[in-house]
Fold these 3 entries.
Entry 1:
Amino acid sequence: MNRWSDRIAWMIRIALAAVFIWAGAQKARHPQLFALDLEAYRILPAGLILPLAYYVPWLEILAAGALFIPVLRRSAIAIVLGLLVVFTLMLALAWARGLQIHCGCFGAAGHDPTDFVVAILRNLLLLGAAAWLERTQLRPGRMTNASE
Amino acid sequence: MKGILLICLAALVPALAQRWWQPPEAFRPRSALTDGAGAGERVTLQTVRGWNRPVLWVDARTRAEFESGHVPAATLLNEDAWESLLPEFLGRWQPGQPVVVYCGASCESSRRVALRLRLAGIQDVHVLEGGWDAAQTLRP
């Protein structure tokens, strides 16, 4: 059972890392386009848009990489969870306000208005996976297995 | 907690390096209205009419919308077919000529097209306030 659990944990880590590295890399390619996407949500103060557009992609990439570093794994999962919660709340707010925007989830890789239902469901799936990692793999008694 | 701080601080390094290497020179905030110097993002039709120089109009909507009606002499340029439409735009644009981009009234694509043009090195690019609704008054 534990062996299966560890295999699933590995697969989830790889999937989360792939999504975050891909998303971060696409945003980091064109931070100014990502800034436009952030601005379109009309949530953030103008002075924060550009700093976040340069910073968030690299935080995603580094957190994804840290999922494979045993001593940083717990912190990386916490950051991934935090980012997913923030992203999902922003999507939900934009949806509730009826905005027709490009979500910027994967940077300049897309440009059509986002289907918020699909984007929120995708984030909830990722959130569930990250939360499962946090709950089951990093309990004190399992730290050794989780750190292999 | 230390690990979170470490990852967050480590992400600052490439972010600051990229900010230095690729400064955000093409980005214009939504609130920036074009003034006499033409430094802003948004521009009103009245301001464009006051420019005593030929403007290149760019329609950032879909091809179907463009074909159903557009500003006279406007060129189609959108992100759906950026690579194939850009050469036509470049063929019509004269160095130093101001560019005004429009799309639907509440769409964001004109801002994305304007930013992409500035990233391509064309600095005098603006977005029409009111979009296609405002631009329709230019139709013959």
Entry 2:
Amino acid sequence: MTITLLTMLVGLLAPAPSVPGDLQASVCPAETEHSRRAVTFFASSRSFARTRALHGLPTTDSASVRPLTAERDADACRQLRQFLVQYRPSKSGIGTFPAFYTASGYYYIYVDLERKGTTPEGRVSVDLRRRTLYVLDRDFKEVAAIAS
Amino acid sequence: MLNCPTRDIRVPLLRCLTATALALVTAACAESAMGPEAVPPESQRSNKQAVARAHGKATTSPYACFASFATPSGPHAYRYRYFYLHFPKEAIAPDGATTRYRFRANTHKGEVGVLANCIVPRTIPAVRQMNRFFKAPPHTGIPAEGGQPDGEIIVLGGCSEDVTEGCVIVGDPGGSEPPPPSEEPKCDINTTQNCDNYPGTGDGGDPGGSSGGNDPCSSCEPPPAPCSTGDQTIDDPAVQAGYKELWAASNPNGNLYQRVEAAGWVVRTPNGTFAIESWNIQGANYCGWSGTPPAATQGTVVGFVHTHPYAVGENVLNCEGQVVTYTGEPSLADRQTSAQLGPSYGYGSGLPGYILDKNGLTKFVGYTEVVDQRYSRCGY
């Protein structure tokens, strides 16, 4: 009983862990309309059914794909960042912009590329560069690395 | 077993060398009479060679060599062989990464004696094993600073004029027990038989190209069959001719760094036929292309086409230089492009896109998967 009370007292007196808001927010990178559309399409469309089956991935309801947020998923975001740094570091120096999602017990990392350049008057620029979609399981082990 | 002279001979870069072929090495192994005897008969070949014949009772493997051997005493100048390669587990890259290990040894006359194009695990132990196999200097292709070997390793062997002693290229790798076969075959080199007029096992008068042809892990290039898909755009002869040009421009038989995507508009001409207007894009590399395509001049844009010079299931490089799997579907970037282009040309859901790869042709429209059509390869 004494120990319990002491523990509670220490808990009250000790400062709460301090995590700056901006740092916490940056743990989970911001998604883009394109990254969400891409991951949702991969996870739910018939077009990618064969690839999903190849990697043992389920077909997911598009509504169940959600981006990871610092508020809910800070730890997972750190793990996914660690995965990118440790196992899939960019070798080209090209600007990459990952976005993190989860659905049906898997994590999805869509690595977009820096879009640059201007469009001449009246002309539409296109970007056919290959992006990458990584799928990781609950233990943050890579399940698939797909050129997309 | 004859010993190879160990004199280093710096050989000029072969035409197959590219900016990404980083490992220029000298060879320790010269040869003098690379005839049929250079390949021991099956019964005499030791398992220690870590090599199995691709045909017959050989164990398949995702790693292989296509090799040409000069046969000065035979009816044909060269013999061609596929060899499966087997590596111990510790030599297999955890992510399945592979590298291309090319070997060339000239005769004392300066002609090609042996030419081999191999797919091997992209690991230091595997490259070491290949070096032993080809009797190349042991540090060939091994990064001095450690880390992963390069994506392509060029081993140039040669003969100096004073070579009096022959050596065999296919030899004892060092007396170890034969390594077990790898577990997950990823390509079937049998599919490369009869590619480019260089049969998998046969004879001929040419050693074959060293610039990417005879890839033991790429599929054959059969003569293109005319398209009869029912899609009037695809079936148009002019479109198929355009496909063929784009495909050739993609260098589909080159190594991963040499292959590039080629693209163009599909246009409807004023007389109602279709045509391809190539974008003649500059700056494309192994990871694709971005930029502003030229305006179409021959008619109304009804689609865009681009190549994926890969086979489904093939390991390709993403833009970060990592190995990932090509799945054959229109990429998410392709769909984005279709969706983005659509409104500019009067296609709300997306401008129809056509993709040519080594296995087939896909038509798609933005993210509307119901439009996806996959056709057998034709026209290119």
Entry 3:
Amino acid sequence: MGRRPLAGIQVGDEIPSLSKVIKREDVKAYADSSGDQNPLHQDDNFARSVGFPGIIAHGMFTMAHLVKAVTDWAGDPGALKRMKVQFRAVVFMNETIVAKGRVESLDPMTKRARLSVWVEVDRAGERQLPIKNGEAEIELI
Amino acid sequence: MSLNQCLKGKEYPEVTLTVERDQVRQFADAIREDAAIFRDPQSGKGAGYAEQVAPPTFVTKVQIMSSAEVVLDQDLGLNYMMVVHGEQEFEWRRPLVVGDVLTAVPRIADIYAKGPNEFLVIEAEVKDSSGETVAVSRTTLLSRGTAER
């Protein structure tokens, strides 16, 4: 695995979409390893008390998956220079999140690419966007 | 109740985090990041890094410690039950590697209202032991329905 060259990339290219099923044990492991122990992500009774049908995944857990999609495409975690996301929908256990991205601009001088990035989930036939309007800046070679 | 605008610009006690091998592996496991460079020092070195590399969002640990200090500030008037994580931005200057000793001084970068909601922006510039900035985190928390009408 090496860093992707800018030559060969075109504006409008889409990165391979990356799917993942949200597992309760992963969300628990994420709470423990990130340090975010908010009961909204671990305790179904608490989640119900604030109006959800059950626990939801951490927004940052979903962002971590989006980052993986981008750095897998870039070929190097060090290629990622910036990412900004908006959290716009919750994610429940056993749902499938799909991380996606598209090249919006390329700068051959700085070897940088700007991508729009987002995360989709299909809920009862409707497309929700847990991460919307994301931007990523990648340094290529 | 609305947020205390006077706290705009307030800095909080420094947080610190050492990037430890086991923590990096556990974090990689939790996010199903299975690449070898996140799992052993030799692969990290093979890819040109000094050590085993932490996944980029490992810096979330510092972001969470930073946000916790701010939201627990009694003077801020934040009701945590009303809070959702609205936006997150990271800048990365270099990948974090095992052995890095990180520090950050959390700061309230902005407090503003938009419609019925209030927004709290927490910034943390993450530095290594040489004082060099390795990452910047900007967290926007949304306080639902607390703006004064």
